[in-house]
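Sanity check

After download, print the first record. It should look like this:
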Amino acid sequence: MTARALQLRQSATIARSVGVVAIALGFILGMQGLDNPGSGWLQTAQGLIVTGLLAQGYALWCTVRWKRERENGDDQNKRERKES
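Expected structure tokens:
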């Protein structure tokens, strides 16, 4: 596995974790915001949910790139073995 593929895999894992936490906190704060409509918790919750969704999208993008890097690395290793 190349260093770039490893970096993409780690980025995807971190982004996925951050996304799950942000979405969960957004829903918790959203319930608090619905109980207290005059407070700013509802807008904060919406921001956290959007942030979590964006983090999940980035994780998906990193995963797709990681799979492509891994496939390209595997193809290159097979070619090198055939030449040897």
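If your output differs, re-run the checksum step. Summary of this record's structure: The radius of gyration is 20 Å.
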